[in-house]
Predict the 3D structure of the following.
Amino acid sequence: MQEPLVSVVTPVYNGERHLRECIESVLAQTYSRWDLTLVNNCSTDRTLEIAREYAARDPRIRVHNNETFVRVIENFNTAFRQISPESRYCKPLAADDMLMPECLEQMVRLAEEHPSVAIVGAYGVYSRPELGVYCRGVPYGQAVVPGRELCRAYLLRDRRMSVTGAATFTLFRSDVVRSRPAFYNESNFHADSEAYLEVLEHHDFGFVQQVLTFMRVEAESLTSFSERVNTYLPHRLEVLVKYGPKHLTPEELEREIRAALREYYEYLGWQFTKGRDREFWRLHRGKLAAAGYPLSTPRLAGHVAQYLLGLVVRPGRIVAALVDRVRQAAPGGEPA
């Protein structure tokens, strides 16, 4: 029997530094039945030249050129729309990331063995050693985790079931990707995590107990931006409001929202003393309002005062606790 086709999609903007390594990692796969679409987002460097060079060399590689520049998440959606009609699986791969040689083979094997699985993940490593290994919380030896169980674990921040992460870490069934006009919500910085929650409500998650991907985290990346302005806290509040009623009891949901708001205001109180600009406050004011919890000036003032008082009494402990809270706010405790 013929192996199922895997459509690898790589959105790229000014990626000449790492694009060759990225493409070479696909060419080095032990699994041979794949096609690769490079979606060039109006790059101004040698990205298009490099992409066309490889497309001329291998018929499995093609290039799609955007007519106009779009944002990162929108370009991922453009890439998802390029998957082959014959593909059974879709493998997103960021242009500065790489796949280990057995990535496609191992992920496809697991998905073929478990038809209920719509998303396959595996261990991955980051370019920044301090970020550790992606997916450290998956139970050893467990190949399939029920989707709704993972949704609950995500909303309850259970690190024993930490599987959400960047697109490069995962493989999707193509039918799931095709079922949504836009696979990612383009208004959400953490659209990948939101897509997980949507898909896993009706499907299961498969996991390969092997390091299969490598992800670079650059200073200008979306992950770095999310860390700089902290989009994780509003994201947590948003997903609790939207998905909490589906997976949590009323008591659990109330408790988690209360905790999310407390952590959010502790962070905002801390940042108020840093003199953050209007863009920062516009973003967080808008996120709170969208979640149904408009920014409360008295509550913010209370947390500013609490933070300043803490600096006088025990400065080191207060700052360390806030930094730890911010880190924990990231989905799964890791960048997404």
User: Anything to note?
Assistant: Residues 331-336 have pLDDT under 50 and may be disordered. The chain is about 45% helix and 15% strand.
